Amino acid sequence: MDIVWYIYVTFIGLMLGSFYNVVGIRVPAGESLLGRSHCPKCGKTLGVVELIPVIGYLVLMGKCKECKSHISIKYPLIELISGSLFLLLFVLLRGNMVEYIVSISFVSLMLIVVVSDLYYQVVPDKVLLVFLPIILVLRMFSDFIPWYESLIGGILGFGFMYLIAWYGEKRFKKQALGGGDIKLYFIIGLFLGYNLVFLSLFFASVIGLLYGMIIRKKTGYIPFVPFIFVGSILSYLVGQAFIDWYLGILM
Ligand SMILES: [Zn+2]
Questions:
Q1: Which of 70, 80, 150, 218 is the least buried, fewest Cβ under 10 Å from its Cβ?
Q2: DSSP codes joined into one string, 180-214
Q3: Would the CA dihedral through 169, 174, 179, 185 be positive or negative?
Q4: From the CA of 41, how far away is ligand 1's center (Å)?
Q5: Which residues surround ligand 1, an ion (CB under 5 A)?
Q6: Can you say how many angstroms the Cα of residue 146 is from the centroid of all Cα atoms in its chain?
Q7: What are the E-state strand segments in the chain?
Q8: Hey, which residues does 70 pair with through a beta bridge?
Q9: pTM recorded for the entire structure
């Protein structure tokens, strides 16, 4: 009956992904989380079918029914990434339910802040404050890493990002990192532990640089949180294997 579980967790991931779009867009704007989703241009509320993750986007063919304005591909993408990660992590971690819940909580946090970063270039404190205790406490109950590795990881992640920001401001006289990124890294460090926290930043930077080289966007702001998201998930999934492989080359 595995398949029933797979369908179930994917469905939950898709539905929550849809909700995370709403949270990431409404929380920084100070809007209520209640109330039906609507077109940002003309305000038309979405019908029942249009609210279904991914399907809604396909039914509308990426355009508002009323005003025909373009609906961002970001919505179904966030839903798809959420659904896929809920499934992938379930397949990998089904023997360890606490770890599964920690990891999907982390994915949830990251998806919300990715959305906020893409729309407003902010990482909302409110969202961090909701997830901080959840990840802090759940991390203690999972045997993925000992609690002190988690705590030290959080402190190191925060401290290192703080230093980068401080140095960047001193050296280049402009803000290189937002305060939100720094606080976010405390939670990433808690989740990954001190073994993997720096690797996540390394992955994020490499992917960010490659993206910058390929896309060559001239206009100022490139959101960094999506790269932090990819970097930390990669680090969580394959980080230890990557470190072992790298040390194997050195030996
Ligand atoms: Zn519209």
A1: 218
A2: HHHHHHHHHHHHH-TTTHHHHHHHHHHHHHHHHHH
A3: negative
A4: 5
A5: 39, 41-42, 44, 64, 66-67
A6: 23
A7: none
A8: 63
A9: 0.93
